[in-house]
Amino acid sequence: MFRRLFSTSGAKYAPRHLVSTVELSKEELGTLVEKAGKFKQIVRSGNGTPVEQHQKLMGKLVALLFSKRSTRTRILTEGAASFFGAQPMFLGKDDIQLGVNESIYDSVKVMLSMTSCIFARVNKHEEIMELCKHLNVPIINSLCDKYHPLQAITDILTIKESFGGKTQGLKLAWIGDANNVINDLAISCLKLGISVSVSIPKSVEFDPYIIAKAKEIVDQDNQVSFEVVNEPQTALTNANIIVTDTWISMGQELEKQEKLKQFEGYQITKQLIDQGNADPNWKFMHCLPRHPEEVDDEVFYSGNSLVFEEAENRLYAAMAVIDSLVVNKGDFSK
C-alpha cells in the first residue's frame, strides 16, 4: 500500500510508502520485480558495485527500525542501503525507546530530520500506519502482522526466474497458516497472472479483506482464480509452485503443541504432493526460517526447492524498492 502525505508545515510532499502490495498497480509491481532482476545481474556480474549506483545515496542515512529480531531481513536491508552508498543504522527494540518514554510522534519527528527512508520491521500493522502518518520520508514495511511486501516481490522474482521469465498461467498452492506472507503473495500473484489456491485448517480464518481484494482482481481478469480450501490435496492439484511458512510465529512459542495439532496433515512431503497431483515440474518455496514440521527434508533439500535462491533474492527486492521509492522519489518510470 502506498500512501501520499503532506508535511506538517503545509507544504505539499508526496513520499511513496510501501506498506503492502495491495494498492500497487500491476505495472508498478512488475517494475519492482524487473528492477530486482536487473540489480541481481549487476551484483552477480562480479565487477563490484558500479560507482554511479554507489553515489546515488552517498552521505544519506537509512534507518532500520526493528521491533522484532531478524537474520535475513537485517542483512539484506543493510546490504541494499550500502549498495547505493547510504549508511544503514540498525535500531533494534533495545536500542531506542520508541513509544516508551516519549510518544511515537516525538521519536519519529527526530528520525525525520536525519534519515532518507526507514525500513520498519514491527509487530502490529498499526505501528506501520503510525509511522506513515507522521513521517514524510519513505516508510518500507519489512514485516508487520498483516503484510510482508518485500517477501512478495522476492517470491515473484524467484518464480519468474524458475519458469523462463513468465508468470501468466501458473498456479501457486499455499499449504499452511493464514498470515502476512500469503496476504501479500496472493495479491501479487493474482496481479501478475498466477492463480492461487490456499489450503488452511477449518479452525483458521483467512483475512476477509485480502479475500475481497483477491476477488476484485479475479473479476477483472478471468484468466486467474483464487480459492481458500481446507484439504491440501485440493490446493495442490496442477500446482506449479508450492509454498508454506512457519506455523509458529515469533511470540507464539508457548502455543507450539496446540499449533502442531491444528496443522496435523499439513506437512509438505513428496507423498502429499503426489497425492495432490501437482504439476510434474513443481517448485517449492519457503521464506525461512524453516521447521521440519512444515516441510520434510526430502522436499526442502530437493532439486525442486528454490528456498536458498529465494532468500538471496530478498536483497535485490530491497534494492529495487530503494531505487524506486528513495532514489527516484516514487517515480516508477525511471
Automatic annotation (TrEMBL):
Keyword Transferase annotated: yes
Protein name: ornithine carbamoyltransferase
UniProt cross-references to Gene3D superfamilies, sorted A to Z: Aspartate/ornithine carbamoyltransferase
Keywords tagged on the record: Amino-acid biosynthesis, Arginine biosynthesis, Transferase
InterPro entries: Asp/Orn_carbamoyltranf_P-bd, Asp/Orn_carbamoylTrfase, Asp/Orn_carbamoylTrfase_sf, Asp_carbamoyltransf_Asp/Orn-bd, Orn/put_carbamltrans
MF (Gene Ontology): amino acid binding; ornithine carbamoyltransferase activity
Location of the Aspartate/ornithine carbamoyltransferase Asp/Orn-binding domain: 168-324
Xref: PROSITE patterns: CARBAMOYLTRANSFERASE
NCBIfam families cross-referenced by the UniProt entry: orni_carb_tr
EC number: 2.1.3.3
Gene Ontology CC, one term: mitochondrion
Metabolic or biological pathway: Amino-acid biosynthesis; L-arginine biosynthesis; L-arginine from L-ornithine and carbamoyl phosphate: step 1/3
Pfam name, any one: OTCace
Aspartate/ornithine carbamoyltransferase carbamoyl-P binding domain residues: 16-161
Family per similarity comment: Belongs to the aspartate/ornithine carbamoyltransferase superfamily. OTCase family.
Class of the enzyme per the UniProt entry, highest EC level: transferase
GO annotation, biological process: citrulline biosynthetic process; L-arginine biosynthetic process via ornithine
